[in-house]
Amino acid sequence: MRPETDRPRLVFLGTGGGAHSERCHAAIVFQPAPGRVLLLDTGGGFEVVRQLKRAEIDLRGVTRIFLSHRHSDHITGLEPLLLHIGLQAMWGQRTAADVHVYAHPEVLAACQTMIETMASGAIELLAAAGAQLRWQPVLADGAAVEVWPDVHLTAFAADHIPDDGSCLGCVVSFAGPNGPRRIVYSGDSRPTAAIGRHALGAEALIHEAGGVDAQSAPVYRSGHTTAGEAARLATAAGVRRLYLCHVPQDGVIPAMLAEARLHFHGAVAVPQDLEAFSLE
Q: pLDDT of 202-254, one tens digit each?
C-alpha cells in the first residue's frame, strides 16, 4: 500500500457488501491532498481503523465523513473511528481537529442514538482534545456544502432500503490543475436517473454492484444495481472511470467485470480492499 501522495486519490478501504464475510465493508477515502481525508461511509466496525492504519493514512487527517444511509455495514465504524481519533490525540498529548459528519437528518439521529446506546466515551475524548463532533445534515439535491474551500459535496437521492428518503449518494467537486473535477458515489442504490444526471462528465463514478444482469430480480429486490446497469449508466453519463464496489462475494467478480466492460469502454475496476487510484 502506497502512503499519502500530493495527488488527489481514492483509497478503497472496504469494498464488500453486507453479505460479504471476508472483505471489509463500505469505506472509501477521497484524499484531495496530504493530510485531508473525506471518508465515504465508515464500514462495519473497528475494521475502518485497521484499514486506515494499513493504508498509512494518519487519523489526524480524517475530519470529514459522509454517511450514505443507516445500514450497519456503512455506519457502525463511526464510533470506533471517533474513539481512536480521540485516543490518538490523548496519547500524543495534542489537540485534535473538529470532525464533520454529513448525512441525512434521519441517519445523523441514528448515529447519535448508536453512540449513546454504546455508552461511548468517543465524543468526550474528542472534547478533551479540543475538538467537536459537528453533525451536518444534508438533503437530496440541496445546496452544495463546503467541505474545504476547494472541495464541495452535494447529496442526491438513492433508491435503497428504507424507502423514506434518508438514503443518499453524493457528488464531490474539487479543484484540479486543469479546472474543476467531480467524483460521484452512488451509496447503496438501485439504478436511478438521478445518479446518471449527477454523473454527467464526472472524473469517476463509484457505483455499488450486487451482481450481474441475469440476477437482476434479486439484486433489485434487495435495493441494489447490477454491473451491467452501472456500466450502461456510466456510458450514458460519459464518465472517465467506473469503480464497482459493495460486492456480495468474490466469486461473481469475473462475471461483473466482463459485463461492465461489455457496456462501458472506459477504465473499469472492481477494487480490492486497500487498493488506491490516482485521480491525475
A: 999 999 999 999 999 999 999 999 999 999 999 999 999 999 999 999 999 99
Residues 6 or more apart from 159 whose CB is under 8 A from it? 167, 189, 190, 191, 192, 223
Residue type, 205: L
Q: Determine if residue 274 is left, alpha or beta; phi over 0 gives left, psi from -120 to 50 gives alpha, anything else beta.
A: left
Residue 1: predicted pLDDT: 44
Cα separation, 197 vs 187, whole angstroms: 15
Q: Which domain holds residue 30?
A: 9-278
CB neighbour list of residue 41: distance below 8 Å, 6 or more residues apart: 25, 26, 27, 28, 66, 67, 68, 74, 75, 77, 187
Enclosing H/E stretch for 185: strand 179-185
Question: Model pTM greater than 0.90?
Answer: yes
Query: Cβ(224)–Cβ(208) under 8 Å?
Result: yes
Cell numbers that stand for 131 in this block: 475538538
pLDDT of the residue at 131: 96
CATH code, domain with 92: 3.60.15.10
